[in-house]
Design brief:
By secondary structure, the protein is of the alpha+beta class. The protein is about 25% helix and about 30% strand. The protein has three domains: about 160 residues, no CATH class; about 130 residues, 2-Layer Sandwich (Nucleotidyltransferase, domain 5); about 80 residues, no CATH class.
């Protein structure tokens, strides 16, 4: 006996319309009715349901593989405003609010005004995402795949936990603007900077050749001991703020050659002939032998010479980072940022050319500044949830979760939120000021039916 062939059901579509105060009709037309759980179009009409604004058409999912059945006799029952397409639109709206909160660092009040929702809803949403972040978004790496960054920005921020300062060192790539490395520590020594840098290097497919920083000594010391040629661009956060130092670090056998180039921060902003100063130092990487303790024999009671002219006293300690502006040699170059052109006048040494060219590749037409990591730190401090348990381990988990969330646009924390948000979240954005909570100006019409 042959089985009877079942006719394929037609799709059910509806149109939602809003009539404005000026008589203009806003249409959300040909909305496909599908299950909000399995998104199948295998649905049937299921009478109507009473609501505060009247009775609405109801539907039932007849898909035998629907995840909502779970052994139940009947499938998922829903209305037009809780159907699959509306759920997708609401999830898109929720995702946009999460992006504004955690990727752009917008304030809750600004988001509520832009999306036409209440401040309480944004606060509830932020609390739900914060709990997801607190538990950690489980993924081993900060980035889903290796990036092609060759230039990074390093900066540190701090948090207070039980009156103790905890530093968060963040490394961000210039090409992709992604967080490539994070290290949380009680100090910000050279070893702490190196841990964050090593993670950033592991997350890139190319060798990092340019670092920008804000003159913190540990970052510069870390770059000195990397063991390969690298350019460090320093914008000190102290007066004068309009000066920057470009350090080109190279190695010759057991010697480390550091070429410092001093420029104004606006050197690459517009077409002009610019001046720079440079100085070069060479130092052996082999540690020198320790001096014997105490004075030399016979120097303790040695008589001092009488009437000798006083010698000029040399300043003790390491030279200032701005010393290149005082004792450096002058050089000149022609800058044309519009066509990405830099021309050196005279015969400058190759480290000067390489250092300035690396800086020009990042800041052509802009001021020199350590803007990438600083901006990231400000946003992370603004969105960082510090409620509940507060410890270094928990801070590390939350920081890395926010880093993953900001790095991967496909990583949507709203899928982890179990709350089903009302269709008003989207309809308020769609209808704007003409939306009414009682739906008196709303009409839902059936377009096609099985």
């Amino acid at each position: 006996m042959k089985q009877r062939k079942h006719a394929k059901k037609k799709e059910i579509r509806v149109t939602i319309s809003f009539t404005t105060a000026f008589g203009v009709v806003l249409l959300l037309s040909n909305l496909l009715i599908c299950c909000p759980d399995c998104f199948s179009t295998d649905v049937n009409r299921n009478g109507t349901r009473p609501r505060e604004y009247g009775r609405v058409a109801a539907f039932i999912c007849t898909n035998p593989d629907c995840i909502a059945k779970r052994g139940k006799k009947t499938g998922r029952q829903f209305t037009v405003l809780t159907s699959g397409e509306i759920v997708k639109l609401v999830q898109r709206e929720i995702k946009e609010m999460i992006d504004a909160l955690y990727r752009r660092g917008a304030k809750a009040k600004t988001i509520a005004s832009a999306h036409g929702v209440s401040n309480a809803l944004v606060s509830t949403l932020k609390t739900a995402v914060d709990s997801t972040i607190a538990s950690g978004i489980h993924r081993d790496k900060l980035v889903p795949y290796k990036t092609a960054d060759t230039a990074v920005s390093i900066d540190e921020t701090f948090f207070k936990i039980d009156n103790e300062t905890i530093y968060a060192i963040i490394v961000r790539g210039y090409r992709t603007s992604k967080v490539l490395g994070i290290n949380v520590s009680k100090t910000r020594a050279e070893e702490d900077m190196r841990k964050a840098f090593d993670e950033a290097q592991a997350n890139t497919s190319k060798q990092i050749g340019i670092i920008t920083t804000d003159a913190h000594g540990a970052t510069r010391a870390m770059a000195m001991h990397l063991g390969y040629p690298i350019t460090v661009i320093v914008h000190p956060h102290k007066k004068p703020y309009n000066k920057a130092i470009i350090e080109r670090i190279e190695h010759d056998g057991t010697d480390r050659i550091v070429t410092q180039v001093g420029v104004k921060t606006k050197v690459f902003t517009k077409r002009a002939k610019r001046e720079y100063k440079y100085r070069q130092t060479r130092k052996s990487t082999i540690p020198s032998a320790k001096r014997p303790r105490g004075r030399k024999k016979g120097t303790k009671n040695k008589p001092k010479p009488m009437n000798t002219p006083s010698k000029t006293t040399k300043k003790r300690g390491r030279p200032s980072i701005f010393e290149v502006f005082n004792s450096g040699k002058k050089g000149y170059m022609k800058i044309r940022p519009q066509i990405k052109s830099i021309k050196f006048l005279g015969n400058p040494i190759s480290p000067v050319i390489k250092g300035l060219s690396d800086a020009f590749s990042l800041f052509a037409g802009m001021h020199i500044q350590n803007n990438k990591a600083e901006t990231e730190n400000n946003i992370i401090r603004a969105v960082m949830p510090l409620g509940g348990q507060r410890s270094i381990e928990q801070l590390k988990v939350r920081l890395r979760a926010i880093g993953r969330l900001r790095n991967d646009p496909t990583l949507d924390p709203s899928i982890m939120l179990h709350h089903r948000y009302n269709a008003r979240v989207y309809l308020k954005r769609f209808a704007g000021a003409d939306f009414r909570n009682d739906f008196t100006n709303c009409n839902i019409a059936l377009c096609a039916q099985a």
